[in-house]
Every structure is written in structure tokens, then in C-alpha cells.
């Protein structure tokens, strides 16, 4: 299996190379050259299997020769053994034909653990083989950062630097990143928003001297392996509701577009998905784009679902690549225009292709609170604000005939203030995290400036 860049000008790589490379050297994102499919029988055979075996069968065709079957199985086994639910990604019924897919039973209580725990294992195998050491730099609006730290903390051959927007993540999220005491972990509070963090991260990848000097690697959803690991739970959920014999739809609370792009890959692989619904908070660039055809920056507005406070949605580039018939030049031009003018207009043909695949909805702050309250009143479930954005859009978009699965992307205890405001109940952290607010914090405040950030990485990384 080979991987090509969405901008068409970077070297073609194998799975492990693409995983260790992160951003392509032409600024694009790696995608598989072809998308493997599973037959209806192959999908039906997933029924009743463990999450781990499903993961192996769904992801194996994308991995090629990069890992042996034994290595890959062992990595999957270790990745999910620490999850707090035997099903790993259980489904809970919210209403007739509306289900929540709980993706927050991993070590840091958000869906990011599904991919990060796996790539942590795969990186270790690949690095041990090559004898390399790397510097991971990640950008986070709150959840990716702690998941990355959890997956890579304490490793001798990896340093992890996480850029997060100062003052714009929840207290639990910040403490998950600032309290680990391992010497290879560095939490950097950037004076800016998530878009600034992600832009500086991409600037670092495009500074080839720096990139090569520090052995830069990326674990954001820039990294294809992150997206791939998230494809699995679309299969496990759909099969448990009757796929391939029965169609299902998914609503996905969306920011950087990685999670819903994984759903698109599942559909391309043959999973009978009727609709993929994008749910945004007030940072609604994706909803506006699907509605108007114009993808235009509007400034990040802080919200009570802070992990989705994103405007420049990294993986949308992967969707554009598909919508433009895999034309890397066209994508490169759009991305240039975005950089120059802060927006671009999607061609009619590509817009239609996107609309054939995705529908969308936007949820304001009060509606998010109302949805947390209404869900609690109707079902007794406490849901996080991101999940609430999904539930609200799903309720508006779903039709009675096809089961709708809304992705519950984080544990409510990561956002206790919003949940308490809506329901009067303050969700508690699991016992193993009970001392989170007693631990010492270690964080460096850094300006939103490439040279300053690169200087911190150079100075702190171990050589
Ligand atoms: C809790 C939560 N929900 C939803 C999202 C959106 O996911 P994506 O960026 O893959 O669209 C994120 C992060 O991006 C998140 O942390
Ligand atoms: N919401 C994310 C933003 C970064 O997402 P990624 O999936 O591109 O790594 C976060 O919580 O950090």
C-alpha cells in the first residue's frame, strides 16, 4: 500500500514512512493511493468479533508490509487493553433509532485515545527497528494533546511538545497536559488560538532545516495513521446495528474534520452508511462552506465546546482532494488562495460531490446547553458539550427509518462547568484521575511566533 500527498508533489511513501513523516514535504496530507474495500461477507463476518479483531481486519489492508501480522496484532492488543470498557466503543440508546457511540473510555477520556494509543505502539516498533529518535510536536485544542502525552510519556527515544491555546482549554484538559512529570513531556501554552497553534506546527514542518535537525514527527490527524485507527469504530458500531444488511447514519461533532473523514473512508470501504452529518459549534466554517460553497475564515470564537474551536480544518483538505477527483494541483491552488486571501470558493462540481457525501448543521451556545439538559432529563445521561452539538444536529437531521449514531467524543467530566450549568450535576472524574487537581503543573508560556517555538524545542529536546 502506497501513500500520496493531497498536493501531488511529495514523495510516495509506505504506511510506516507516511506515519513517521506526518505532513508531506509539499505541505499536503498523505492519503492511500487506493482505498481497499471489504465485501459484504467480510463486513458481516465482523459481527460478534472483539473490537481488537475488528480493528485488525479493517486496518490490515492499509498497512501493507510495514508491520507483520504479529506485530500489528500485538500493537492493537496493547493499545486497547487499558480502556475502561470491554466493548472499547459501546453503543448506548438515546431515543428510538438514535444511539450514542461512547468513545471516551480510553485513558484520557476522549476519542483521541483510539488512534493515539495505537500509533504510540506502532511508533515504538518502527523506532526500535530503525534506531531513530524523534521529536513529536502536536497542536491541540484540548484533547489531542493529553492523548499524545499519555501515549508517548517516558519513552527514551521520543520528546513530545504540545502547543495549546493559552486560556482556551478546560481546566481538566490543561491539567492532563501540564501535570505529567516525565522529562520528555513539554506543555507549551501559546498566546493565540488553536488555528495559530496548528499553523505554527505546519510552519515547523515546512522549515525543512528545523524538521530534519530535530527529527520532527506529527501525531495530529495530519498523520494518516490517526485517521485510519478511527475508521474502525464506524465498522464496529454499524455492524452491531445490523450492517451490512441494514444502513446506518452517523453524526460527528467536527472541528479538524479527522473523525468524520474516517467515516468517509469507512463508507468508501463498503460500509453501508446512508448519511454522514457534520455537526459544528459556532465555529461553523464547514457548515457555511457546505451551505454556500465559500470556505472562509471568520476568526475563532471561544465556545463551551472548546475542542471544536477551529476554523482552519486540516482534514478538509483530504475531502477536497477526493471532491476534486484527486487533482493535487487544484488542491494546492486552493490552499495557496486560503493562505493569501483567507478563503476560497469550491467549484460547483466539487461542491456537489461534497454535498452528495455530507450534510451539516450548526449549534449555538444556548442550544448546546439546552441539549445537555434535555438529554439528561430524558435519559439520565450526562453528555459533554461536543457530544451535545452532535446530538442536536442529529435530532434535526435524522429520519425515522435509518438508525442514527452520534459520536460521543469526550467524557462529560472533562467539561464539568458546562455540564453543571446545564443540569445542576457536576460529573466526576474516574478514581484513577482523582488527584488531578492536586498535582503540580509544569507549563511554558510561549508567543505565537515560529522562531520562539522552534527555539524552545531545540533547547529542551534531549539529543
Ligand atoms: C471532544 C472532541 N469532539 C470533537 C472534536 C472534533 O474532531 P475532529 O477534529 O476530528 O473533527 C474534537 C477535536 O477535534 C474533540 O476533542
Ligand atoms: N480537537 C483537537 C484538535 C486537533 O485535532 P487533531 O485530530 O487534528 O489532532 C484537539 O482536541 O486537540
Description of the molecule:
The radius of gyration is 20 Å and the shape is globular. The mean pLDDT is 97. Helix content is 45%, strand content 16%. Helix 4 packs across helix 5 and helix 16 packs across helix 18. With 463 residues, the chain is of the alpha/beta class. It has a domain of 217 residues: 3-Layer(aba) Sandwich (Rossmann fold). The longest helix has 19 residues. The structure holds pyridoxal-5'-phosphate and ligand LJ64HWYM. Pyridoxal-5'-phosphate binds next to helix 11.
Quickly list its features.
Rossmann fold; alpha/beta; threonine synthase activity; binds pyridoxal-5'-phosphate; binds ligand LJ64HWYM; 5-stranded parallel β-sheet
Assembly form of the protein: single chain
Q: Based on the coordinates given, report the CATH architecture of the domain at 91-107 and 224-423.
A: 3-Layer(aba) Sandwich
Largest sheet: 6 strands, mixed
CATH topology of the domain at 91-107 and 224-423: Rossmann fold
Q: Which strand order spans the largest sheet, edge to edge or round the barrel?
A: 4-5-15-10-11-14
Number of separate helices: 19
Low-confidence stretches: none
Percent helix: 40-55%
Strand percent estimate: 15-25%
What is the radius of gyration computed over CA atoms, rounded to a whole number of angstroms? 20 Å
Bound compounds: pyridoxal-5'-phosphate, ligand LJ64HWYM
Distance between the termini: 33 Å
CATH C-level name of the domain at 91-107 and 224-423: Alpha Beta
**Got a strand count?**
16
Mean pLDDT: 97
Secondary structure class reads: alpha/beta
Shape summary: globular
Amino acid at each position: 500500500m502506497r501513500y500520496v500527498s493531497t498536493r501531488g508533489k511529495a514523495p510516495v511513501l509506505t504506511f510506516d514512512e507516511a506515519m513517521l513523516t506526518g505532513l508531506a514535504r509539499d505541505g499536503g496530507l498523505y492519503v492511500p493511493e487506493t482505498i481497499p474495500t471489504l465485501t459484504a461477507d467480510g463486513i458481516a463476518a465482523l459481527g460478534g468479533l472483539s473490537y481488537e479483531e475488528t480493528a485488525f481486519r479493517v486496518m490490515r489492508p492499509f498497512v501493507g508490509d510495514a508491520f507483520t501480522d504479529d506485530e500489528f496484532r500485538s500493537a492493537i492488543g496493547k493499545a486497547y487493553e487499558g480502556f475502561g470498557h470491554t466493548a472499547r466503543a459501546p453503543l448506548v440508546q438515546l431515543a428510538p433509532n438514535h444511539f450514542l457511540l461512547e468513545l471516551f473510555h480510553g485513558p484520557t477520556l476522549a476519542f483521541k485515545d483510539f488512534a493515539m494509543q495505537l500509533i504510540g505502539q506502532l511508533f515504538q516498533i518502527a523506532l526500535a527497528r530503525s534506531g531513530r529518535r524523534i521529536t513529536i510536536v502536536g497542536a491541540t485544542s484540548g484533547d489531542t494533546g493529553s492523548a499524545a502525552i499519555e501515549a508517548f510519556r517516558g519513552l527514551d527515544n521520543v520528546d513530545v511538545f504540545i502547543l495549546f491555546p493559552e486560556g482556551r482549554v478546560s481546566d481538566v484538559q490543561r491539567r492532563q497536559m501540564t501535570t505529567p512529570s516525565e522529562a520528555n513531556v513539554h506543555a507549551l501554552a501559546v498566546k493565540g488560538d488553536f488555528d495559530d497553534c496548528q499553523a505554527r506546527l505546519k510552519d515547523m514542518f515546512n522549515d525543512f532545516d528545523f524538521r530534519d535537525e530535530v527529527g520532527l514527527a506529527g501525531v495530529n490527524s495530519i498523520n494518516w495513521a490517526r485517521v485510519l485507527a478511527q475508521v474502525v469504530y464506524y465498522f464496529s458500531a454499524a455492524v452491531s446495528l445490523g450492517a451490512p444488511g441494514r444502513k446506518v447514519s452517523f453524526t460527528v461533532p467536527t472541528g479538524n474534520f479527522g473523525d468524520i473523514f474516517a467515516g468517509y473512508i469507512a463508507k468508501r470501504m463498503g460500509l453501508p452508511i446512508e448519511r454522514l452529518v457534520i455537526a459544528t459549534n459556532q465555529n461553523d466554517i464547514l457548515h457555511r462552506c457546505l451551505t454556500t460553497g465559500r470556505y472562509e475564515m471568520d476568526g475563532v470564537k471561544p465556545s463551551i465546546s472548546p475542542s471544536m474551536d477551529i476554523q482552519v480544518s486540516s482534514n478538509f483538505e483530504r475531502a477536497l482532494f477526493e471532491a476534486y477527483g484527486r487533482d493535487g494541483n487544484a488542491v494546492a491552488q486552493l490552499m495557496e488562495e486560503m493562505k493569501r486571501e483567507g478563503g476560497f470558493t469550491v467549484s460547483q462540481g466539487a461542491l456537489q460531490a461534497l454535498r452528495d457525501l455530507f450534510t451539516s448543521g450548526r449549534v449555538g451556545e444556548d442550544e448546546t446547553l439546552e441539549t445537555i439538559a434535555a438529554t439528561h432529563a430524558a435519559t439520565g445521561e450526562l453528555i459533554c458539550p461536543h457530544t451535545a452539538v452532535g446530538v442536536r444536529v442529529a435530532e434535526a437531521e435524522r429520519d425515522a427509518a435509518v438508525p442514527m449514531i452520534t459520536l460521543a467524543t469526550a467524557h462529560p467530566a472533562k467539561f464539568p462547568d458546562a455540564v453543571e450549568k446545564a443540569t445542576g450535576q457536576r460529573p466526576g472524574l474516574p478514581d484513577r484521575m482523582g488527584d488531578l487537581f492536586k498535582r503540580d503543573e509544569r507549563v511554558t508560556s510561549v508567543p505565537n511566533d515560529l522562531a520562539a517555538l522552534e527555539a524552545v524545542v531545540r533547547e529542551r529536546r534531549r539529543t
